[in-house]
Amino acid sequence: MIIKDFRFLLIASLGTIFLTAFNYPLVIKSLGSSKLANTQLKQVARQINIQDSRKTETEFWNTIKEIDFDDSSQNNQTRKKPELSKTAQKPKTQLTEVKKQKKPLTEFLLVGDSIMYAFGIEFKNAAKKSNYKFDQIKVDSRYSTGLNRIDYFDWYAKTPKLISKYNPEAMVVLFGGNDDQTILDTEGKYRDPLSPEWKAAYRERVERYAKLINQSSVRKAYWIGHPTSSVARYRKFFLIANKIYQEVSETYPKMEFVENWDAFAVNGNYAPIVANKSGNKGRVRTKDGYHFTNHGASIVVENLMDKMHQDGVLQQKVQ
Q1: In this structure, what DSSP letter does residue 92 have?
Q2: Closest C-alpha to 210, from 200, 198, 220
Q3: Could you tell me which residues are beta bridge partners of residue 12?
Q4: DSSP secondary-structure letter at 227?
């Protein structure tokens, strides 16, 4: 640091002397224009070429700019501009480009547990009434299934077969109605519902399913979040499950989480009767506290289609 300061001071001093010498004509020119100048001084001043002096000064400063005062690099090698890391260069850019569709999608596959049954019916009804183009809508809902008891029904094995059979461009996923029970983790240990170990095991299941879809031919997938419930047990579980679905979805380019928590609420509290966008009111859940009524399913479908429209997934019909 001391050597660098000394070099800079030396160069600055030489620069001052140099500029004083080359700016001498400018000084004489300035004095020559003064009222105090005598006749001889004025004559000398008129003979000075100011343009040449300015040119010399410019050349000097251009030379100074080319000097590298940092000699920390060996053999006077040119210092390279530091490169940004890939993360710094493109924060979430790749993820955003994938999630924003450049081409509308028309072939859909909906999969899930028994909650998907009413949802699938209302999705098809909404598709028929809409101004959007749908070439294919396939629904596969299975009672008493989910991502927990894969010993009873294995969605990890079933889903690739469905994708291969229907070749959908987009998928809609709805799980959770049967998943709030003891889970078997990757270590072969059973974990109590909603315990920290259970949450970790269930997140691993969700990650595994999201990865399966992300690596498939499907171009876009929506994970449906659960609305609030009248039953305390489901309110607690759905909050935890929704958080996992959302956090996992954020890490996979093809996956999008659809928030619905307040879809069945008024002023933040569960409401058994809710109006849809058309103003029509109806019950939103069955007596069990977690299945949708057709009216409730239609409200969640409206939220999904709004999201699909924003993402550029849905295509308007040609009039």
Answers
A1: S
A2: 220
A3: none
A4: P
CATH architecture of the domain 97-310 equals 3-Layer(aba) Sandwich (3.40)
Strands 220-224 and 170-174: parallel
Q: What is the pLDDT of residues 173-213, one digit of tens each?
A: 999 999 999 999 999 999 999 999 999 999 999 999 999 99
Integer Cα distance of 303 and 210 in angstroms: 21
Q: Pseudo-torsion of CA 158, 161, 165, 171, nearest 10°?
A: 60
Helix 24-32 and helix 39-46, axial crossing angle in degrees, nearest 10: 130
In Å, how far from its chain's centre is CA 90? 11
CATH 3.40.50.1110 domain extents, the chain: 97-310
Q: What is the maximum alpha-carbon separation in the chain?
A: 112
Determine how many CB atoms are found less than 10 A away from the CB of residue 264.
24
Q: Which token pair is 113?
A: 């547990």
- Give, for 138, the enclosing helix (H) or strand (E): strand 136-141
H/E stretch holding 166 reads helix 155-166
Position 90 scores a pLDDT of 35
pTM passes above 0.85: no
Contact 314, 305 (CB under 8 A): yes
Give the span between the Cα atoms of 213 and 160, in whole angstroms: 8
What's the rounded Cα separation, in Å, for the pair 147 and 178?
9
Give the whole-angstrom CA distance, residue 70 versus residue 185: 57
Question: Looking at this protein, which amino acid is placed at residue 235?
Answer: R
CA 48 to chain centre: 66
Segment 120-171, tens digit of pLDDT? 999 999 999 999 999 999 999 999 999 999 999 999 999 999 999 999 999 9
Q: In the structure encoding, which two tokens stand for residue 293, read together?
A: 């009524």
Q: How far apart are CA 239 and CA 94, in angstroms?
A: 29
Lowest-confidence range among 22-26, 97-101, 180-184, 204-208?
22-26
Exposure class string for 273-305: b at 16+ Cβ within 10 A, else e = ebebeeeeeebbbeeeebbbbebbbbbbbbbbb
